[in-house]
């Protein structure tokens, strides 16, 4: 029997806790008695403690008396965790326990707790798309993957936001007991055993500039309102009366991406909007968004989002 440990703290996201634990608990129903999972919860703060949604949670052990012999230890996230103060006591506990474990990891923003304990350095990791940039900034020695649902790097496993903890737990069950058991659990929980694509299909691709009156902001507005037209660097530079070379340099400095990259993201976002809210044929969507052809749009969707336009529409189209 394998022991799964999971930390609990005030403000934890309750679904980060319940989702993975339900996967392991359901797996026990498909396994021979004694070969499944024993679930152990460890309370970091005084118990009972409140989750971020107001739910009261209890734990099997307090941090000071918790066992250390886990087969996998998971650290869930919380909405305020990225900006929370460092808990030196928890960091010391994680540093003393995790390196000796066969597997340890995080769900969503739980990666910040591992990072503060120095356990992400030199590792490939992920977290919720909305917090990935902050994670990379706080822990520059970690290689943050912005678009992965979950990542395995040696004994370290990390997952994206909230429900991605279910994906991570299913992958661990598949590793321990084979894909057939993981698939049976996924069917029981009415989730997919391995979802297609990455986090980008759930995230807004474009962000507004800090200064809405800047040349970069004016160009971005022009792109969004002329998305079907050819949008070369030269044409965009004319919009703000700059030389193409100077414009490209200023755009990269202020936006963090090249003008061509922005145009491509803008076209993908425009296409996503039409796929979600209209019945237009894929050819028409591709034309209206400036892709030139449905084939080109399909190629970029697969490259950027990990799904085809048809698959995206099936998942996200708004129902009347």
Overall pLDDT score: 89
Instruction: Report the portion of residues in β strands.
Output: 5-15%
Gross morphology: globular
CATH class group of the largest domain = Alpha Beta
CATH architectural group of the largest domain: 3-Layer(aba) Sandwich
Secondary-structure element order, as H and E? Answer: EHEEEEEHEHEHEEEHHHHHHHHH
Fourth CATH level, the homologous superfamily of the largest domain: Class I glutamine amidotransferase (GATase) domain
Count of helix runs: 13
Distance between the termini: 49 Å
Q: Which class do the helix and strand fractions yield?
A: alpha/beta
Query: Main sheet?
Result: 7 strands, mixed
Total strand count, please?
11
> Runs with pLDDT <50, length 5+?
none
Number of self-contained structural domains: 2
- Work out the helicity level: 40-55%
Summarize the structure.
By secondary structure, the chain is an alpha/beta fold. It has helices at residues 14-28, 88-97, 110-116, 132-138, 164-177, 179-189, 215-225, 233-239, 244-255, 259-277, 282-288, 294-305, 309-316; strands at residues 2-8, 37-43, 49-50, 56-57, 61-62, 72-75, 104-106, 124-125, 143-144, 150-153, 156-159.
């Amino acid at each position: 029997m394998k022991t799964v440990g999971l930390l609990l703290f005030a403000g934890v996201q309750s679904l980060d806790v319940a989702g993975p634990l339900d996967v392991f608990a359901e797996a026990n129903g498909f396994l021979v008695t004694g070969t499944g999972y024993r679930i152990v919860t460890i309370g970091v703060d005084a118990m009972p403690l409140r989750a971020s949604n107001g739910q009261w949670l209890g734990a099997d052990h307090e941090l000071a008396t918790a066992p250390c012999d886990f087969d996998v230890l998971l650290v869930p996230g919380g909405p305020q965790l990225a900006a929370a103060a460092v808990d030196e006591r928890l960091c010391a506990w994680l540093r003393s326990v995790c390196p000796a474990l066969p597997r340890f990891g995080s769900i969503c923003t739980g990666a910040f707790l591992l990072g503060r304990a120095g356990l992400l350095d030199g590792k490939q990791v992920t977290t919720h798309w909305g917090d990935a940039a902050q994670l990379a900034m706080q822990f520059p020695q970690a290689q943050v993957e912005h678009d992965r649902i979950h990542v395995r790097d040696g004994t370290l496993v990390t997952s994206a936001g909230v429900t991605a903890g279910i994906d991570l737990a299913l992958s661990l069950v598949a590793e321990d007991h084979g894909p057939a058991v993981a698939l049976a659990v996924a069917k029981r929980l009415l989730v997919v055993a391995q979802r297609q694509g990455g986090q980008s299909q759930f995230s807004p691709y474009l962000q507004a500039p800090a200064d809405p009156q800047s040349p970069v902001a004016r160009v971005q507005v022009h792109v969004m309102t002329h998305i079907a037209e050819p949008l070369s660097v030269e044409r965009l530079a004319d919009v703000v009366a700059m030389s193409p070379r100077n414009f490209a340099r200023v755009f990269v400095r202020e936006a963090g991406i090249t003008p061509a990259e922005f145009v491509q993201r803008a076209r993908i976002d425009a296409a996503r909007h039409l796929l979600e809210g209209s019945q237009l044929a894929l050819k028409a969507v591709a034309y209206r968004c400036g892709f030139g052809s449905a084939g080109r749009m399909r190629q970029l969707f697969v490259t950027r989002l990990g799904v085809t336009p048809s698959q995206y529409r099936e998942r996200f189209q708004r129902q009347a």
